[in-house]
Specification:
This is Chromate efflux transporter. It is a multi-pass membrane protein. Keywords: Cell membrane, Membrane, Transmembrane, Transmembrane helix. GO terms for molecular function: chromate transmembrane transporter activity. It comes from Streptomyces cyaneochromogenes. This protein is mostly helical. The protein has two domains: about 15-105; about 110-200 and about 225-400 and about 430-460, no CATH class. About 70% of the residues lie in helices and about 5% in strands. The protein is built from 17 helices and two strands. Strands 1-2 form a two-stranded antiparallel ribbon. Helix 5 (about 125-155) packs across helix 16 and helix 10 (about 275-290) packs across helix 15 (about 370-400). The radius of gyration is 22 Å and the shape is globular.
Amino acid sequence: MTATDQPAPHQPQAEPDRGDPIPFRQALRTWFAISLQTFGGPAGQIAVMQRALVEEKRWIGQQRFNHALSYCMLLPGPEAQQLAIYTGWLLNGTRGGLAAGTLFVLPGVVALLALSALYVGFGTTVAVTGLFAGLAPAVVAIVAQAVWRVGRRSLTHPLLVGLAVASFAALAILQVPFPVVIVVAGAAGWLIARWAPGVFKPAAHGSGDDGPAPLIPDDALHHERPSRRRTSRILLVGLLLWAVPVAAVAVLTGTGSVFTTQGLFFSGTALVTFGGAYAVLAYVAQQAVQTYGWLSAGEMVRGLALAETTPGPLIMVVQFVAFLGAYRDPGALTPWAAALLGALLTTWVTFVPCFLFIFLGAPYIERLRGNRHVSTALSGITAAVVGVIANLALYFAEHTLFTTVDDHTFGPLHLAVPDFATFRPVTLGIALVAVVLIFKARWSVLRTLSFCAALGLAAALAGAPGI
């Protein structure tokens, strides 16, 4: 059943399974249909669910939908997938949340695995090189758009602008670790709210073309009531599911293997992805490229381009990172088996926490939404995220527009300085085209990427320099 062939809003529905508001099989078909349309980042993904579940099927009211969205915005991780888990839980309990969250990411996992294998097998051919040469500068423009959109919504006061600038400087110049920036930003938001309560105005999330805005939370409660027994059970099961695969690869492949390292590293990043995938990608890129050497900076940009073209959350790019890292350091396994194991393990530890956060916190949502301290801390983090994403844009721009970027240290300052002799004029031209298409023509991300990929392919086939 698609989003357009549902019964009329007031037509009696079939008897729900096990007392669920919606029959589970009918919900499964709907979640599968939604999963095939989750392009365009969280704004587009939230809009797809809004249209299908609120406007067309009328399975959930607008206030209830926005209530769930506002809660998911407080959590680390991809808010759109967490919104799917939460809504699935409302409709069909735990099994509904599991089904909705799994189906939401499954098409993207399969598609990015195939694209990662294609990149490893054929990435040096002229055609594939040209496609990536067009995709990479388009990604720079897409990240720049993210800076603008998040900043326009979040930086409503000079103090918040200052917090964003300080976060950018801490990352780009002082190389302060990303988790430290997030913690300090949260504390700063709490302190600013105490000293200057008027700084934090109600956020107009979803204003304009950024998806639906959270309105007044719905007071209706789910039949599952919070209890210590329920919380303990979910916490135990969730932590075991999260930790056992990492422990298993540590026992079977060694604590120093690439699989154990990836499992632990991406488990940690899953806890600090406030503000969306863009916010944490600068940290992932820094660690994956400079610390672990799993891939190059240019390949990180290409991986993000691939993730932009597939359905599902953008944080799926970590699967590409793990695929390449494990392929190049397979240990006792074959490179292809190692790549598959690394990619699947990383996907597992990235998304299992999303289920855990929702199942643990959903019954307490009313109390959490009324907690002013949590709200102001997250507002501080959101302001800092603007600086974090700006740092990501700078990182991608330098490694896309220049073949060589050198690190220079001046006392406590660490600067990445490009070698201007390695400037790529064709790449700059494609990046400018992407900027015009996104900011002026208002093309979608997928359409922009496709057009720029075609430009890169044409330039490569024509023998343009720097491709």
